[in-house]
Here is the input.
Amino acid sequence: MKLKIVSFLIAIVSAVQVIMPLNAKADGGNYISADTVSIEKMLEEIPADEIIVTECHTGKILFEKNSVQEREISHLTKLMTLLIAAEKLESGEISLDDKVTVSANANSMEGSQIWLDKGEKIRLEELIKSISIGNANDACVALAEHISGSEKDFTDEMNSKAKLLDMAGTHFADCTGMSDQSRSNAADMALLAAEIVKYKSLAGYLTVWRDFVRDGKAELVSQNRLVRTYNGITGMKACSSRSAGECSVVTAEKNGMCICVVILGCESSEARESASKKLLDMSFDAFQIYSPEIAKDMLKDIPVTGGEYHKIKVEFGTITPVIIPRGSYNLVEVRFEKKEEIAAPVKKNETVGKLSCVLNNETILKTELRSAESVKKMNFKFGFLKLLYNLIG
Here is the structure.
C-alpha cells in the first residue's frame, strides 16, 4: 500500500525515524513501552484500506494512509444527510417538531430501518435520532423527501454541498449509502466531519449509545461503541457492509483540539475501534494547539503625521491557531514588526506591521497588523477649523 506520513509528524521525534509504541500508555505525555514500532509500520498493520487523522478546527492532516482512493462508504453517506438537515434546522427552514408523513418510497427501504409505515406521521427529531444512532434507511429517505420534496433533489443538494466543501473525490447517488455508486474517500470524509462538528446540536444525537423511537417500538443502537468508552467523544458514525467493509468517522475533543479519525475498509469492528482509539490517544498525546499571545504594546495606537488625526488604532487580521508538537510551545519564536509612525493619508485595513511565528526555522503562522480606521491628509480648511476650535475650547 502507498503510505504517506506527513513530514510535520515525522519532525516530532526524529528526522529519520518516528518511534511510537503499539500498546503505549501515556505518562505525563511520554510514552512508556519496551516494544516500539514506527508509525509507518503501525499504520501498515492496521487492517484497513484507508486511514486519515486530522485536527478539525485547523484542517491539519496529522497522518494518513491511502486517504484519497475513491470507494464505497455505506452508511457514512448519512453524515452528509445530517449536515444538510442541521443547516436547515439552523436556518429555520425545518423544525424538530415538524410532523413528517412517510411516503411509499420511504416505506420500501430495505436494510437498517425503524419499520416506518406508509402514511405514518413521525416527528422530525425522531428521524434525526434514527439516522444518527441507528443508520435507519427509511428514516433517511423520509427526512430527505420532507426537506427537498424527493430523494433525487435532496441528493443533488448533497452533491452541491460536497463541491462547496472541496470534496473532490465524492459523489452521492442516494441519501442512505445503499447504492454502491455513493462513493468517497477518507480525506473527504474528514472534511465533512470538520463541517459537522460546527453544529453542536448534532453531538447530542451522534454521541448516544442507545435510544428508542416510535413510542418504544423501534430500538436504536449505535455501531460506534466509542461513544460509551472514550472520554471527550463528540461522534460520529460507524457502519459495515460486505462491499465497503468496516468504516467509521470518529471525533473527540480535548485541550482545545478536535481530532477526527477516519477508517475505511477495515477487516473487523474490533480492529476498527482499537485503531480509532489508539490514533485518538496518539494525536492528543503528540500534539497541541498553538496561538500567539498578543501583548498590549502590539496594539498601541500608531502616531500619524500630516493627518486630520494624530494617531490611528490598529488591529490584527485573522489569527488561525495551528497544531504543533506537544511540548514545543516555548520553542516558538514570535517575530513582530510595526511602523513607528505613518504619514497621512491612511486607508482602513492598510498594512502597518506583521507578526510571524517560527518553529524549527519554519514559519507556522503569520498575520498582518492593519489600520482599524482611515485618516485623511490634513488640508488648510480642516487645520484652520481645528486650530480655531482648540482656541475657543
About this structure: Confidence is low (pLDDT under 50) at residues 1-37. The radius of gyration is 27 Å.
